[in-house]
């Protein structure tokens, strides 16, 4: 019997969180909560939070403040906070926001239906936030419409052509600015057979592109003493590439220190592996990299960039950069600017440093003035925009294999899709379906996208 209960999920943060939200949505659907995009209709609200920067955390509190009155209007409403802020704050969060019923950390998402049940019986559950060093991701089981009165598509089992698959989670690196090791716990990898089973199921349901996810996918399969628990990441890539139906493979994120020659080689040999690499550098200054505990030098980083470009000349590189790390001098900042010109990234995400709870850098001296951080960020983003535009213009006149995503948001009635190198292309063409690949001749390179016509 369909009781017509509704679940609303809002996601902040990274793709790991997006995938976790999808899993929570599927579990709630199995418990007969169908998804809604209207928060006012919800019987259960899940806010999957991110704590990576101060701003990200503030967004969560402002949303929680706004939904307080929904709970006043409908006392049976169950409000859950999941993700990295939940993990970081635990009981403090419930103390500060008494309308929150459930606090659930990333290692505990699988308990959500149980906690929702408890909360529905007016039995406020304890925050589920202990981080266990021995945590493992539960074995794969396909989302089951059989256990629910909802239809297959309502439980999110109906595939999109493009899916995320978590292969590992947690982080052992302890970069001094970063909260993730404290919110996601230690690295843990899923067995290859679970990953391949999940991807095979997705492919059977029509998935054409998979992105393998982890905070640090390059150390997939390793345990903390450095020994190998499963196959190394390059072997996993090869295994995944044998799954019929999957046409494009991507992965994120990588740590430069763990980028092995074997992985670089995959860009030359694994045909389905897309020529795009997100390789966060964080700073162009060796002095700052040391203080960040990044464990590589710019010279080593550039060697790897060179090797990637040799293996796959059309590879598009993107990165993450932090400006205004404690003690960053003008000279250090200039080294980062120099790096942009040396690498010529296709794109870069750049952020002002912010202190995070538990992260070591919170205690570092020589914190940089907010205004200086803002100025540096602006200078950096302007330069990167110039470079991104030049990079996109380099595609003009070429023919690219584009996977259609849907109707373009530009309002011109065009299609929108992505190149193998992950760049958005808006193009005119006949009726297409999402996931369909077409050859597109690129007519114009813009800052964030390309324009083209079907070749
Ligand atoms: N696991 C990934 C990145 C995860 S966080 C990696 O190792 O690269 C995404 C990005 O947020 C980071 O690459 C970094 O650039 C930025 N970031 C993390 N902590 C930050 C902080 N305290 N202040 C500003 N930016 C931060
Ligand atoms: Fe954070 Fe560093 Fe781990 Fe990335 S590698 S999640 S930046 S600690
Ligand atoms: Fe944010 Fe946690 Fe991801 S802090 S970036 S949601 S791992």
Tally of structural domains: 4
CATH topology of the largest domain: Transcription Regulator spoIIAA
**What is the CATH first-level class name of the largest domain?**
Alpha Beta
Proportion of residues in β-strands: 15-25%
Give the overall form: globular
What is the number of helices? Answer: 13
How confident overall, as mean pLDDT? 94
Which bin fits the share of residues in helices? 25-40%
What about the largest sheet?
5 strands, parallel
Total E-strand runs: 18
Give, in spatial order, the strands making up the sheet with the most strands: 2-1-3-4-5
Distance between the termini: 51 Å
Kindly provide the radius of gyration, computed on alpha-carbon positions and rounded to a whole number of angstroms. 23 Å
Tell me the CATH architecture of the largest domain.
2-Layer Sandwich
* Category by helix and strand content: alpha/beta
Which residues form runs of ≥5 with pLDDT under 50? none
Distinct ligand kinds: S-adenosyl-L-homocysteine, iron/sulfur cluster, FE3-S4 cluster
Report on this structure:
By secondary structure, the protein is α/β, with parallel strands linked by helices. It is globular. Strand 12 (316-323), helix 12 and strand 13 (347-352) form a beta-alpha-beta unit. It folds into four domains: 6-120, Methylthiotransferase, N-terminal domain (Rossmann fold); 158-274, Transcription Regulator spoIIAA (2-Layer Sandwich), CATH 3.30.750.210; 282-394, Transcription Regulator spoIIAA, CATH 3.30.750; 399-454, Beta Barrel (OB fold (Dihydrolipoamide Acetyltransferase, E2P)), CATH 2.40.50.140. The protein is built from 13 helices and 18 strands. Helix content is 33%, strand content 20%. The longest helix has 24 residues, at 370-393. The model has no long low-confidence stretch (mean pLDDT 94). The strands form five sheets. The chain has a five-stranded parallel β-sheet with strand order 2-1-3-4-5, with helices on both faces. Strands 14-15-16-18-17 form a five-stranded mixed beta barrel. It binds S-adenosyl-L-homocysteine, iron/sulfur cluster and FE3-S4 cluster (F3S). FE3-S4 cluster binds at residues 13-14, 16-17, 50-52, 83-84, 179-180, 183-184.
């Amino acid at each position: 019997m369909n009781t017509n209960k509704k679940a609303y999920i809002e996601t902040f943060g990274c793709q790991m969180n997006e995938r976790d939200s999808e899993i929570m949505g599927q579990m709630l659907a199995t418990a007969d909560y169908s998804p809604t995009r209207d928060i006012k209709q919800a019987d259960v609200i899940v806010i999957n939070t991110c704590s990576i920067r101060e701003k990200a955390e503030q967004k969560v509190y402002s949303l929680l403040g706004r939904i307080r009155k929904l709970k006043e209007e409908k006392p049976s409403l169950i409000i859950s906070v999941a993700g990295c802020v939940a993990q970081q704050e635990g009981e403090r969060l419930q103390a500060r926001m008494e309308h929150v019923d459930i606090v659930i950390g990333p290692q505990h998402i699988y308990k959500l239906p149980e906690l929702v049940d408890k909360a529905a019986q007016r039995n406020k559950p304890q925050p589920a936030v202990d981080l266990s060093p021995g945590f493992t991701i539960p074995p794969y089981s396909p989302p089951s419409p059989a256990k629910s009165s909802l239809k297959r598509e309502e439980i999110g089992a109906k595939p999109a052509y493009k899916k995320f698959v978590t292969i590992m989670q947690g982080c052992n690196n302890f970069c001094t600015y970063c909260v993730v090791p404290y919110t996601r716990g230690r690295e843990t990898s899923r067995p290859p057979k679970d990953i391949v089973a999940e991807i095979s199921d997705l492919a059977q349901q029509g998935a054409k592109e998979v992105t393998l996810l982890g905070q640090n996918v390059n150390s997939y399969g390793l345990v903390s003493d450095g020994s190998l628990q499963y196959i190394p990441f390059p072997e996993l890539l090869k295994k995944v590439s044998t799954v019929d139906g999957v046409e494009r493979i991507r992965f994120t994120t990588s740590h430069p220190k763990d980028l092995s020659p074997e992985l670089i080689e995959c860009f030359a040999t694994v045909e389905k592996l897309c020529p795009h690499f997100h390789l966060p550098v964080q700073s162009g200054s060796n002095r700052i990299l040391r203080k960040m505990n990044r464990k590589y030098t710019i010279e080593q980083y550039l060697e790897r960039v060179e090797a990637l470009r040799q293996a796959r000349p059309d590879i598009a590189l993107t990165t993450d950069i932090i400006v205004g790390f404690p003690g960053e001098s003008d000279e250090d900042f200039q080294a980062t600017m120099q790096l942009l010109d040396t690498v010529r990234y296709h794109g870069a995400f750049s952020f002002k440093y912010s202190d995070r709870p538990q992260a070591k850098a919170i205690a570092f001296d020589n914190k940089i003035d907010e205004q200086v951080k803002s100025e540096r960020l602006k200078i950096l983003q302007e330069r990167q925009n110039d470079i991104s535009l030049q990079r996109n213009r380099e595609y003009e006149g070429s023919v690219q294999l584009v996977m259609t995503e849907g109707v373009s948001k530009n309002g011109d009635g065009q299609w929108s899709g992505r190149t193998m190198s992950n760049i958005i292309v808006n193009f005119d063409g006949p009726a297409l379906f999402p996931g369909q690949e077409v050859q597109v001749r690129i007519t114009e390179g813009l800052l964030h996208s390309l324009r083209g016509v079907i070749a």
